[in-house]
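Entry
Fold in token form

___
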Amino acid sequence: MLKKATPHVTRVRALDQLHRGDEIEARLSVGPSYDDVVIRRGSVQETAPGIGVVWILDRITGVRKAINTDECTVWRVA
């Protein structure tokens, strides 16, 4: 029986670590006794480390979305 491959996920602590085309997830904390919830997933289009924003092309909708790192955490998916 084959195992399902799970992606390797690492937290991005500084937006200057991201490059165009990187696959990321934006996660929102919902409480201390719950796992973070993935609210967006897509590929990086542009970053603005000075203001804490990264723009992605959303994987589900195909629409460009802005992610504010003050509101959620960013995780690289490999």
